Amino acid sequence: MLTGVLPAVKNMKDFEQLLKSDHEYLVFLETRISQIGNIIKYAKKSNKKVIVHADLIQGLKNDEYGVEFLVQNVKVDGIISTRGNVISIAKKSNILAIQRLFVLDSHALERNLDMINKTKPDYIEVLPGLVPKIIREVYDNTKLPVIAGGLIRTEEDVRNALDGGAKAVTTSNGDLWNL
Q1: What is the C-alpha R_g of the chain?
Q2: Torsion angle of alpha carbons 60, 168, 7, 172, nearest 10°?
Q3: pTM for the model
Q4: Which residues form a coiled coil (predicted)?
Q5: How far is the C-alpha of 157 from the C-alpha of 131, rounded, in Å?
């Protein structure tokens, strides 16, 4: 189960630091397809599990074959995506599937909740993660664990998200990784 703060890696310096940390899971936000294999190998050598944001891997098409490559060749432990078809494929591949949803307005929330109720991801990542009321509403409508992400900048943001019902919080702010 994903809980607490999940460090989101944006650069290799952060990645190297996190390899030495106590965190079991790392979230890799942006990378290139040519780098992802080595990143996963190094993480596995340090007994880390890696969740990648499939939508942000440059050079990877977000389709069945892209997910197949990540699962079979790269051996990722989980995938984050805004795309329902990617989440469905990840679930069929028996890896962690996290549906990312942007709460821009009521219509977007409604549309995303419909998709989530069809795809049944393992977790839902709500962005921005600063609105505890929305975190609670997403959970109440799906009964799936929620991760808060996006614009999490302070310890108070982390606590508000967790108090609002999030099981975990993703942040690229290294000062918050060890809360």
Answers
A1: 15
A2: 80
A3: 0.96
A4: none
A5: 9
Residue 153 phi/psi, 5° resolution? -120, -20
| Signed CA dihedral, 20, 22, 28, 33: sign only | positive
Residue 156's DSSP bridge partners are none
Mean pLDDT of 9-31: 94
Q: Which residue range(s) make up the domain with 32?
A: 4-176
Tell me the pLDDT tens digit for each residue of 104-148: 999 999 999 999 999 999 999 999 999 999 999 999 999 999 999
* CATH code for the domain in which residue 126 is found: 3.20.20.70
String of DSSP letters for the chain: ---EEEEEE-SHHHHHHHHTSS-SEEEE-SEEHHHHHHHHHHHHHTT-EEEEEGGGEET--SSHHHHHIIIIII--SEEEES-HHHHHHHHHTTSEEEEEEE--SHHHHHHHHHHHHHH--SEEEEESTT-HHHHHHHHHHH-S-EEE-SS--SHHHHHHHHHTT-SEEEE--GGGTT-
**Length of the chain, in residues:** 179
pLDDT score at 106:
94
How many domains, the chain? 1
